[in-house]
Amino acid sequence: MPTTPPLNRLFFKLLIGFWLCSSLTIALVLMLPMLLQSHDRAPLEARLQQALHQVVEDIQQSPDILTSDKLYQLQRQYSKRDRPLRIYLTNDDGQVINSRKVPRSLRQFLLMAEDAKQPISHQFRNELVFGPLSFSVNQQTYQVYGRVPASHPRPWFLYFSENKLLTATIAILFSGLLCGLLAWHLSKPLNSLKHCANALAKGDLSHRADKTTISRNDEIGQLAQAFNSMADSIEAMMLNQQRLMGDISHELRTPLTRLKLSLALARKKGQDTTELSRIEYEATQLDDLIGELLTLSRVTLNASEVRIYTELNETLSQVLDDAEFEAEQQHKQLHIDIDEHLAFEHYPKPLCRAIENVLRNAIRYANKHVNISAKIKNKQVVIDIKDDGKGIDEKELSAIFRPFYRPDDARDRISGGWGLGLAITQAAIQAHNGDIKALNNKPNGLHIKLNIPI
């Protein structure tokens, strides 16, 4: 497998991604105050300086304004001119003495201009505030400030200085976007691999990682390639195993047929002994085992089967009739609840064999009652088969679908068969891209659930 170039390694992608996110966030935090600083204390234009000097000159010519009701008329005096200009006077304590209502913008500007050596200006959202210009009257020091409507839009970044919450929100969203893109870049192929692994675990050996994931030039791409190689090997081994099982079963049938023929000839000659009967019994058992192995191999390889669209009741008609008869012979009841018009594409023979195996097991081990139901739920055909028997140990629920597995010694070959029935059922359901699971009923009994996508 080719070596990943250094810059495409997952380590460097993570490093560069988080480094870039942190660097851009820090750059914004550092640059914003620098941008604001150049606008916080902009030099005062000549016309505004002239306006402040005119106010100071008027007050110094008529100092009684500061000690009479005319002080509150000072704003209106200058506001009536061509350009509305509002004047504010503060004393040594920084208190505005000519207005009972102090605008928020002026309060902010007073804090901003506390240590100003000369008049400055600052543009707020819709207005320009400027000052202070100091002057003295009767040995008292005053400062004069002005406020006029803004003549042009202010720079966009100044909005952030007045809205700290907005600034923090944008910074969080920006960093979240970068981290989200990085997380998506990494999680998307990993989720794809997870789905492939789950499909493989459920028996779909044909599932592979997609081409987009394989073409990545990093460790995830290498992982996808390794996963596909592993899946190819597993699929090849499983197919070879099933073919080998089928080939061996076919080869065993030839000498078995000769053995049965020899038994028939011996009996025809009158050589009917206990030993010959025993040989015939064992030969029959071996023939049944080979038949089961061939069925398992055929269902697993999905050979010579075509999906057809038909109703489930029609497919299972003979199986259900046989199961009802078998239950009656054992003095047990089979309850059937299958939707009348439940139809979907399926393999009739494998599905019949799958349901038959589970039903016969349920009838064999039930005390009195067996239930089978089928319905469509969440775009799946859900088939439930329940009995009221003893159930099995929780630790063995997932193992009962393995070939030749029997839950306990009591279920020997005579009572429990060869241990291939549920393995055939699982193979048949997996051929439909479905899944099967075993659960214990409460208070007792076994519940087999089959899910087949439609």
Give structural notes.
The protein folds into 4 domains: 6-38 and 164-193; 43-156, 2-Layer Sandwich (Beta-Lactamase); 202-301, Helix Hairpins; 308-453, Histidine kinase-like ATPase, C-terminal domain (Heat Shock Protein 90, 2-Layer Sandwich). The chain starts with 9 loop residues before the first helix and ends with a strand. It is an alpha+beta fold. The protein contains 14 helices and 12 strands. It has helices spanning 10-40, 46-61, 74-79, 104-112, 158-162, 164-201, 211-214, 219-268, 274-301, 312-315, 317-329, 348-365, 413-416, 421-431, and strands at 42-43, 86-90, 120-123, 127-137, 140-149, 308-311, 333-338, 343-346, 369-377, 380-387, 435-440, 446-453. Residues 409-414 have low confidence and may be disordered. It comes from Shewanella holmiensis. Residues 184-239 form the HAMP domain. One of its GO terms (cellular component) is plasma membrane.
What coarse outline follows from CA principal-axis ratios? rod-shaped
Number of helices, counting only DSSP H or I runs of 4 residues or more: 14
User: Which CATH architecture of the largest domain is right?
Assistant: 2-Layer Sandwich
* Total beta-strand segments: 12
Could you state the CATH homologous superfamily of the largest domain?
A: Histidine kinase-like ATPase, C-terminal domain
Most strands sheet: 5 strands, antiparallel
Average pLDDT value? Answer: 79
Structural class: alpha+beta
| Widest sheet, order of strands | 1-3-4-5-2
Q: H/E order of the elements?
A: HEHHEHEEEHHHHHEHHEEHEEHHEE
How far apart lie the N and C ends? Answer: 39 Å
Count of domains: 4
User: Uncertain spans, ≥5 residues at pLDDT below 50?
Assistant: 409-414
Portion in strands:
15-25%
- The name of the CATH topology of the largest domain is Heat Shock Protein 90
Helix content: 40-55%
CATH class of the largest domain: Alpha Beta
